[in-house]
Amino acid sequence: MMPQLEEKPKVFLEEYRLKNAANDYGMADEKWNFKKFVKNFRIVIVRLDNFEMEFDLIGLQPAFANAFRRLMLSEVPSMAIEKVMVRNNTSIIQDEVLAHRLGLIPLKADPRLFEYRPEDATESTEYDTLDFSLKVKCTAVKSQPKDSYRTEDLYENHSIYSSQIKWQPIGNQASVHKEADVGPVHGDILISKMRPGHELDLQLIAVKGIGKDHAKFSPVATASYRLLPEITLTREVLGGQAALLQSCFSPGVIGIDSEGRAYVKDARYDTCSRNIYRHDDIKDAAILSRIRNHFIFNVESVGAMAPNVIFVEAVKILRDKCKSLLDELNSF
């Protein structure tokens, strides 16, 4: 007998189509109710560290979920190198390529402690700018080991890394910030390889910006979401069919008990490939669906802010946008 399915808004994955997948995942015509939203809405943090977070948004419409994703990518600000003053560059990397590479190095500086630099500003201030320098020269090692061909034995400064970028405090910045809190997130980012005669003498200007203007200002490496998968077995699956059913899904999704019976172990990480429909003898054994108001978010920070802070900042930006819209409407 087919088990009773929960009353959740779902998209069903049939063999050749998606069922119940109307505009806005079938919720476009639903009347929004604030009390119902407060009752059903939940945020569940599944995994969190300094760089990555996985969390669930439950009871939310797709438009809001996508708004948070887009805000984290393009409107939550961060600090990045905007201008590179080249005093000397005798390396094999062209000035513009070098400047572009330096701009993509993520910085630890917390953008909430800085202001946006005015477009017409001609001078840097301690409130809107971070100043760095990179001055290195490759030379031959005077006491080279005999018969050694290792670059480490032959040359000094043959590889230039982000750890060699030095902060130059402006005004009172040294008393407010520490060099460890504003420099590159990772010290092992390779900038250039050099040989004797190659030299870099650069001044780097970092400002506050948003990913909508340039990808280097995006605080996340990636921010994505997907709908929660759900798998419901419609009948008992045993023996060889159980092993075949297990192979149709991602590892860990289908388990087999001591009696050789298949069961749904963890549907969360299923990729919804629908491989089960390739096998006529088990294609009727499961109902595949996705919960259309349950979003699994993955946020990977580049390091300036923790991923949970980035999400909170995105919520604040959306709130401010809503306030601005209401103020505009009320002004008429």
Q: Return Rg in Å.
A: 27 Å
Report the sheet with the most strands, covering strand number, pairing sense and barrel closure. Answer: 6 strands, antiparallel
DSSP helix fraction: 10-25%
Q: Approximately what portion of the residues adopt beta-strand conformation?
A: 25-35%
The protein's oligomeric status is single chain
Report what the structure shows.
It contains 8 helices and 16 strands. Strand 1 (10-13) and strand 2 form a beta hairpin. The chain has helices spanning 34-40, 62-74, 95-103, 151-154, 173-176, 179-182, 239-247, 307-330; strands spanning 10-13, 18-19, 42-48, 52-58, 78-89, 130-137, 139-140, 155-156, 159-161, 166-167, 190-193, 199-209, 220-233, 254-256, 262-264, 286-301. 22% of the residues lie in helices and 30% in strands. Strands 1, 2, 3, 4, 13 and 16 form a 6-stranded antiparallel β-sheet that branches. The longest helix is centred in the last third of the chain and has 24 residues, at 307-330. With 332 residues, it is α+β, with helices and mostly antiparallel strands.
Describe the protein's topology:
Layout: E1 10-13, E2 18-19, H1 34-40, E3 42-48, E4 52-58, H2 62-74, E5 78-89, H3 95-103, E6 130-137, E7 139-140, H4 151-154, E8 155-156, E9 159-161, E10 166-167, H5 173-176, H6 179-182, E11 190-193, E12 199-209, E13 220-233, H7 239-247, E14 254-256, E15 262-264, E16 286-301, H8 307-330
Antiparallel strand pairs: 1-2, 1-16, 3-4, 4-16, 5-12, 6-10, 6-12, 7-8, 9-11, 13-16, 14-15
Helix pairs in contact: 2-8
Characteristics of this structure?
six-stranded antiparallel β-sheet, 8 helices, four-stranded antiparallel β-sheet, disordered N terminus, alpha+beta, 332 residues, flat, 22% helix
